[in-house]
Specification:
Layout: H1 3-25, H2 31-52, H3 55-74, H4 84-90, H5 92-112, H6 116-139, H7 179-198, H8 209-233, H9 249-261, E1 265-272, E2 278-282, H10 283-288, H11 290-296, E3 297-304, H12 329-332, E4 338-343, E5 348-368, E6 376-397, H13 399-417, E7 422-427, H14 432-442, E8 447-450, H15 453-459, E9 465-470, E10 473-479, H16 486-493
Parallel strand pairs: 4-7, 7-8
Antiparallel strand pairs: 1-2, 1-3, 4-9, 5-6, 9-10
Length: 495
């Protein structure tokens, strides 16, 4: 589905609701106002719901924004603002849930016309907030990677690869909007938001005040439980991600790779090193005059054909050991069933400390070599043992994190092993030494591998989680709090 198709359906739904309100219940004061209330209300209900099914996805997106805002403000005269962004990032999940519920409740308030003046202001402020986020995302496309956003004189040609955050997350994983389109969408929404501020007295209202209040309170409580359920107790009950149950990841990766390899370069956009003039050369002309052009111009952008199949995160499904050796085929080219335990965050604290260690001291002396004139040799002689202080870090694992491995993952591994089904842990953010410490702490004797953190976050929201693979197919994935017994898994998926 595209944003145009989505807006068309929302527009039809808003029109139908407006006709019911005006013809059957005659609650409208203005046809235009009622339609805009319904259109924006339904839009916010839908965009909020597709994020409510996966609040961690929104939290991860907010972490990306906070990290970029920190980097942007830290090197400017407004650096005093920067420290608040790591604080927000620490509570990104709570912030995401608040924003999701706020968006949905505001959608309900628009449709039922609750507190018109307050609703108008809240809608305006939220649209401004979204416009800032999407505007930042889009405009960073003009900012070279080695420049700060506020270095306006350094801005250049728009390049999608310059964007610090690749998509706004406005519709979660349901639709990945091009940042330019997302920004234009929010600019469009500024128009009804200003109209609401000016003409809020024309807003329709449904039901009596008490009914509206009960509706909002009840909806808020339900949404809190719904959001929490979709990450704390279980995986998202509607999965819009490419790594969904039953997906043939091996086949999808193959087709995406083939489509990417079939992309052709049509032209080269180049900048004159002396004058700064931007010119576009056909690829044939570029190759024919390669030497002369590269002496006079530098490449700004390659203009390519669009791949026939759009790339997803599946294209970046790469698993390695801690030495960098490829291990992806364990999951994509394995005819046997295999259990993966993805861990996108190793939950531990590195506690700094100091300790005394023994250090042997040696003296180095020169001695003449007997029988050889003017020849000497260096002799190393033990002198003493000294005690010296050194700094170290003590790794303290989160107790609940370890308990999950010991009480949930390990019993599953032992039961599966009886049927000759192996298991591996794929973890990000640690090295081989810490992986060995984790294995020792949990007693989970399996192969430990590593992958990109964002990849693992996309695959699984549970940390850790469990995924059953066979023949490159992701058969099923489970939150560790909803993990069935091995006999149930075997009976359902390995018949």
């Amino acid at each position: 589905m595209t944003i145009v198709t989505l807006m068309f359906y929302i527009g039809l739904a808003a029109l139908a609701l407006t006709l019911v309100m005006t013809l059957a219940y005659k609650v409208q004061k203005s046809w235009l106002m009622t339609y805009l209330q319904n259109f924006t209300g339904i839009l916010f209900l839908f965009s909020g719901w597709v994020k409510a099914v996966d609040p961690l996805g929104t939290a991860f997106k907010m972490e990306d924004y906070f990290a970029e805002f920190y980097a942007t403000f830290a090197d400017t005269s407004m650096s005093f603002i920067a420290p608040m962004f790591p604080f927000f990032s620490e509570y990104s999940t709570a912030f995401a849930i608040f924003m999701i519920i706020f968006e949905i409740i505001l959608g309900i308030m628009l449709i039922i016309g609750d507190r018109p003046k307050l609703t108008a202001w809240l809608f305006f402020l939220l649209v401004v907030f979204f416009t800032v986020l999407t505007g930042f995302t889009f405009l960073t496309g003009y900012v070279p990677m080695d420049q700060n956003f506020f270095s306006f004189s350094a801005w250049g040609e728009y390049k999608a690869t310059n964007m610090r955050v690749t998509d706004c997350g406005c519709f979660g994983d349901f639709i990945k909007l091009d940042p330019r389109i997302s920004f234009y969408k929010d600019l469009f929404l500024l128009m009804p938001s200003i109209y609401f501020l000016v003409r809020w007295k024309d807003m329709h209202q449904l039901f009596i005040s008490k009914t509206r209040n009960v509706t909002l309170v009840g909806s808020t409580l339900f949404l809190i439980l719904y959001c929490v359920y979709n990450f704390y107790w279980d995986e998202p009950h509607v999965d819009f991600r490419p790594f969904r149950n039953g997906a043939n990841i091996a086949e999808i990766k193959k087709t995406e790779t083939e489509a990417a390899n079939a992309v052709k370069v049509l032209a080269m956009k180049m900048k004159n090193k002396t004058t700064g003039e931007i010119k576009e050369f056909s690829y044939e002309e570029y190759m024919k005059n390669l030497s002369a052009l590269t002496d006079e111009y530098e490449t700004v952008e390659q203009i390519k054909t669009e791949p026939t199949i759009k790339e997803t995160k599946i294209s970046h499904f790469d698993i390695t050991d801690f030495d960098g050796n490829e291990k992806t085929d364990i999951y994509l080219a394995n005819p046997e069933a295999h259990l993966m335990v993805p861990v996108f965050k190793a939950e531990y604290k590195a506690i700094p400390g100091k300790r005394m260690v023994s250090d042997s001291i040696f003296s180095m002396d020169t001695m003449a070599v007997s029988g050889f004139k003017d020849s000497v040799t260096v002799v190393k002689t033990f002198k003493e043992v000294q005690q010296k202080e050194e700094e170290y870090y003590d790794i303290v694992w989160n107790k609940d994190f370890i308990a999950t491995f010991v009480n949930v993952i390990k019993p599953l591994k032992e039961a599966a092993a009886k049927d000759k089904v192996s298991m591996s842990v794929v973890i990000s953010g640690i090295d081989a030494e810490k992986a060995k410490l984790l294995a020792k702490e949990t007693g989970l004797d399996v192969e430990y591998l590593t992958a990109d953190e964002k990849l693992l976050k996309t695959i699984m929201r549970s940390n850790p989680g469990v995924i059953l693979w066979k023949n490159g197919v992701l058969l099923h994935k489970w939150h560790y709090k909803k993990l069935p017994s091995w006999s149930e898994i075997k009976g359902e998926y390995l018949k």
